[in-house]
Amino acid sequence: MRKVTGRLNSAGLVRMLLVVLEVCEGGITSSYVRNDDLSLDMPLDSDVFQVPPGYNAPQQVHITQGDHEGRGVIVSWVTPEEPGSSTVLYWAENNTNLKNQAQGTLLTYHYFNYTSGYIHHCTIHNLEFDTKYYYEVGIGNTTRQFWFTTPPGVGPDVAYTFGLIGDLGQTHDSNRTLTHYELNPTKGQTVLFVGDLSYADDYPFHDNNRWDTWGRFTERNAAYQPWIWTAGNHEIDFVPELGESKPFKPYTNRYFVPYEASHSTSPLWYSIKRASAYIIVLSSYSAYGKYTPQYKWLEKELPKVNRTETPWLIVLMHSPLYNSYAHHYMEGESMRVMYEQWFVKYKVDIIFAGHVHAYERSERISNIAYNIVNGLCSPVSDQSAPVYITIGDGGNLEGLVTEMTEPQPSYSAFREASFGHGIFDIKNRSHAFFSWHRNQDGYAVEADSLWLKNRYWKSLEEQPLATI
Ligand SMILES: *[C@@H]1O[C@H](CO)[C@@H](O)[C@H](O)[C@H]1NC(C)=O
Ligand SMILES: *[C@@H]1O[C@H](CO)[C@@H](O)[C@H](O)[C@H]1NC(C)=O
Ligand SMILES: *[C@@H]1O[C@H](CO)[C@@H](O)[C@H](O)[C@H]1NC(C)=O
Ligand SMILES: *[C@@H]1O[C@H](CO)[C@@H](O)[C@H](O)[C@H]1NC(C)=O
Ligand SMILES: *[C@@H]1O[C@H](CO)[C@@H](O)[C@H](O)[C@H]1NC(C)=O
Ligand SMILES: *[C@@H]1O[C@H](CO)[C@@H](O)[C@H](O)[C@H]1NC(C)=O
Ligand SMILES: [Fe+2]
């Protein structure tokens, strides 16, 4: 099942295969050593940050799913000089005569001494599935046109390809990660973003201008395919000393998500269905203990997932539950204690997290037997458990983490400190292919990969007929 490839000559390949054979019981720590020069943020006058021409031209255009099923899209953008219009004009590719309009809303926010531009959010409802739409924002001279393709209708054998990006930031490495995602021959149709967007908070006074540059940098992709947002610690922006004591202020003003469609009470946790996937987004930095809003929502949410309709159950969060790097080691432990038993009970297929600036893939393991007195507190192999992927390797200004917990714990299947992105390619209800692509390689190279068998459908196959 496991495949390790990379830039290897045949001798290297043989050596790598031997390594794989030798460490079958434990995991692999890749021997690939990348240049670990710290990458700086791209300068303000970089091409990727250019303001589009024209008076009050819409900038930072980005889209995300706008409902629970995939027939809605939220379009967001910023006009810098004046409010302009919050209307989106849109039409199906095969029907240019019928132009529709959707009316959005406008907001601005202040952060310390920064005042945002005019931020527009407009939800388009009731689109046709599997259809290419063009859309236009702005008024007068300065309209800008983009397009997106809606997903196929929800169903068990609908093939669909997700990209995975985390902890992106806005360095030259960030730009490489995005370019590698764009040029990957396996075309991602939607990005699952696992948190830590702009890293504006690494600047003095959390300079929110770096939120704007990040919006302009990512527009080239996020205006054309939805990015499904997860909040990370760099979205908290909690600085009471500056008078900023409302957590997640810039993030929640700039990045709207369809949380009400999944009966959530907060944009920080929600769910969507898309093609054959059911995606649950959680917040590592909001209360998740018993009786909290997030806990109660998740408790009701998991039993709702109909695996006949959406076989692939995916969870996104920022802080990983299993991580064997030294940095952020055990930070996900308290959420693991609360939720891991549910993830196993409901046979979650895969959990993606960021936070740790490196890549790691786990075995299928769980650690839920412990009850304080029985001493059973080590992860064990568990075929009902998810695979955990850490993909916080987008390339932000804080650099890579290279220091690892030694020896490699048995739950860790593969780990490597390089920048890159992932692809989760769903083929049908039973099979999906995950691959990880590092930035140093050619666009088609899979540095780590794995076939996943759907947990729900696999367990049905394995049950004796009488009990189905
Ligand atoms: C456009 O395509 C959609 C979906 O394929 C179809 O339902 C609709 O009838 C088409 N409209 C026109 C005008 O061809
Ligand atoms: C905000 O305050 C900082 C610190 O005093 C200052 O350097 C910066 O120029 C100010 N920015 C604006 C827009 O006033
Ligand atoms: C619109 O564009 C024309 C031609 O480029 C220019 O002459 C005019 O000043 C523009 N109007 C505004 C309001 O920007
Ligand atoms: C970012 O990447 C794009 C696409 O590869 C390239 O055109 C652009 O010049 C890069 N910009 C910087 C500042 O590296
Ligand atoms: C689950 O989805 C299938 C396929 O859409 C449907 O036939 C079935 O009734 C659903 N089950 C429940 C409990 O809603
Ligand atoms: C599902 O996809 C896998 C991988 O492409 C393939 O081997 C398998 O035959 C497919 N199953 C069905 C029922 O089509
Ligand atoms: Fe983080």
Give a written overview of the molecule.
- The chain has 468 residues and is α+β, with helices and mostly antiparallel strands.
- The chain has a domain at 158-195 and 268-455: 4-Layer Sandwich (Purple Acid Phosphatase, chain A, domain 2), CATH 3.60.21.
- Helices cover 16% and strands 26% of the residues.
- It has seven helices and 27 strands.
- The chain has helices spanning 10-22, 172-183, 209-222, 249-254, 293-301, 333-345, 455-462; strands at 2-3, 28-29, 59-65, 73-79, 87-92, 100-103, 105-107, 110-111, 114-115, 118-124, 132-137, 144-149, 160-165, 190-193, 227-228, 270-274, 277-281, 312-316, 350-353, 359-362, 365-366, 380-381, 387-391, 412-416, 420-426, 431-438, 448-453.
- The strands form six sheets. It has an eight-stranded mixed beta sheet, with no helix packed on it. Strands 1-27-26-25-13-14-15 form a seven-stranded mixed beta sheet. Strands 3-4-10-7 form a four-stranded antiparallel beta sheet.
- Helix 2 links the parallel strand 13 (160-165) and strand 14 (190-193).
- The two termini are 27 Å apart.
- Mean pLDDT is 93; it is low at 1-24.
- The structure holds 2-acetamido-2-deoxy-beta-D-glucopyranose (6 copies) and fe (ii) ion.
- The site of one 2-acetamido-2-deoxy-beta-D-glucopyranose (NAG) has 3 residues, from loops.
- Residues 306, 308-309 line the site of one 2-acetamido-2-deoxy-beta-D-glucopyranose.
